[in-house]
Amino acid sequence: TELRKASKRLTCHKRYKIQKKIREHHRKVRKEAKKRGRKKPKKDPGVPSAAPFKEKLLREAEQRKQRLEELKQKQKLNRQKEHEKKRKLEAKKNAANVKEKAEGKESSGKSKAKTNKLLDKNSKKSFCRELEKVIEASDVILEVLDARDPMGCRCPQLEQAVTCSGDKKLVLVLNKIDLVPKENLEKWLNYLKKEFPTVAFKSATLMKDRTMEQLTRRRARVDLSRTTECFGSKCLLKLLQEHGKTQNKAIQVGVVGFPNVGKSSMINSLKGVRACNVGLTRGVTKSMQIVHIDKQTKMLDSPSIIADPSSNALALALRSIIDTEESGSADVFEGVDAILNHCSKQQVVMHYSIPDFRNTEEFLTLLAQKRGMLKRGGVPDVENIAKVLLCDWTGAKISYHSQPPESQRLPLYLTEDKIAEMQECFKLKILEEENNNTVQALKYPSPASSIVFQSAGMTNGTIAENKVIEEASEWEDMETSKEGEEEEEDFTESDDDQDDLAEEEKDAKEESKADVTRKAKLGNGQTSPTNSAKQIAESEHSNSLSISLDKTADEDDAYDFNTDYV
């Protein structure tokens, strides 16, 4: 049985009441229209019969009408032709796509070989190649450090490559100085200036785009007085110009560093306009960019340094090139866990205004509930809140600071002669005075509001493109050997003879695996049976710029950068 539709009949009282309301509304509208003086548009009376040349005027009016109709018809025909052309083009494209798909299935092997040769712009090899270009082309290299964790932003491989080159100078730029307490900043400046010339810097934000002709009106009022200010730019430009005068030539200045330390923002601040793209996402700069500051100075913007996969969890969380949106949830959770383990729990609870938590998962759950990041059914969105947290810690939202090491121990690649060589062309007294002026001009957070952070020491990075290839080949060999071992374990039987044969095959596999990894570490066909010969080959190779710091952490005489600062 079908359900009957609801009746639309009303009681007489209700119907009359509605009709009365409508009449009152119409009366009100007519009254308001009368007050405004709106009148009905008068109809065209036409040409009066007593007017002279009436017939001529009527003929002209008809001709005008005909012309308008003809124009409309032409426009309609043109539109139809354009639509037909578009349809034909779409049909051709669809036919071509079908052919390409058919041909692609046949020649899939050839296309794969071609795509493997072409490097993607987002690949690690491409980043390393562009970074090498910047280092080779530069006379002075600015290593940009985040003032909240300067030691974690230093790359020993980069510093050794520059110091061993002989004719290049390295200057440390301590960026984001407005996010740390004043006393902590002064301590870091005193610590770092003993190794390399150090400049205190605060980049400008909300820069005007150079392609923008007129300022767009903003709905919300933004305080542009403090945000657009840049501190330390005069000091840095003066330092570079004096170095250019001593060299008697135009100099090229390379800007390098880990992701989100403010490389492109610093160049924009020196230029005065938004010459380079900036953003909170990691790896915005994909290739080398040249920006002319003046006639004697060129700035070379570079992609970020790639953090070594063997680094600790904290270094990979804060300094890794991989974007948080693309990375897996396990990597993000590990990064958040590492950050919380290196901070004071009480200060984190006070900063985020959440109750006490037992572990990382509970912390993320509480934070997601507080910020309203929930899924369907009110379930806290733990994955997205973890990504937001990582972006906040690498961006400029959270104020935290780390203490410099109590005793200053120089790394192996940095001797007193190297330090003197790096500082000889710069006027350090003037630099110190300019830094003091910059420090006095800024407003800083109080030590109580800034989270105390325990640095994990220098972050190892990969500079040479060859290193990335070698690591990839090693991992491939490891994976193939693991697959082979799993297959052997699956097919082994319970008999003693077969077990013995499987063990022998495993031993042989492990020996071949060790040989392959040893060859991959040694590089272009150079193999040696002993560790001493390998160390000699690597020390000779490290003098060139193309391959830097070939020594691995497994060697006995390698310097461990993480032990002094944990």
From TrEMBL:
A single GO cellular-component term on record: nucleolus
Where does the record place it? Nucleus, Nucleolus
Annotated InterPro entries: G_CP_dom, Gnl3_N_dom, GTP-bd, GTP-bd_ortho_bundle_sf, P-loop_NTPase, TRAFAC_YlqF/YawG_RiboMat
Q: Where is the composition biased (Basic and acidic residues)?
A: 53-83, 98-109, 506-518
The protein's name in its UniProt record: Guanine nucleotide-binding protein-like 3
Major place of localization? nucleus
Q: Does the keyword Oxidoreductase apply?
A: no
Q: Which superkingdom?
A: Eukaryota
Q: What exactly does this protein do?
A: May be required to maintain the proliferative capacity of stem cells. Stabilizes MDM2 by preventing its ubiquitination, and hence proteasomal degradation.
The alphabetical list of record keywords is: Acetylation, Coiled coil, GTP-binding, Isopeptide bond, Nucleotide-binding, Nucleus, Phosphoprotein, Ubl conjugation
The Acidic residues compositionally biased stretches are: 471-505
Map out region (Disordered) in residue numbers. 1-117, 470-566
What is the organism field in this record?
A: Nyctibius bracteatus
Where in the numbering of this chain does the CP-type G domain appear? 128-308
Which PROSITE patterns does this UniProt record tie to the protein?
G_CP
Report the GO molecular function annotations: GTP binding
Keyword Ubl conjugation found:
yes
Skewed-composition ranges (Polar residues): 524-534
Q: Where is the sequence biased in composition, kind Basic residues?
A: 1-42
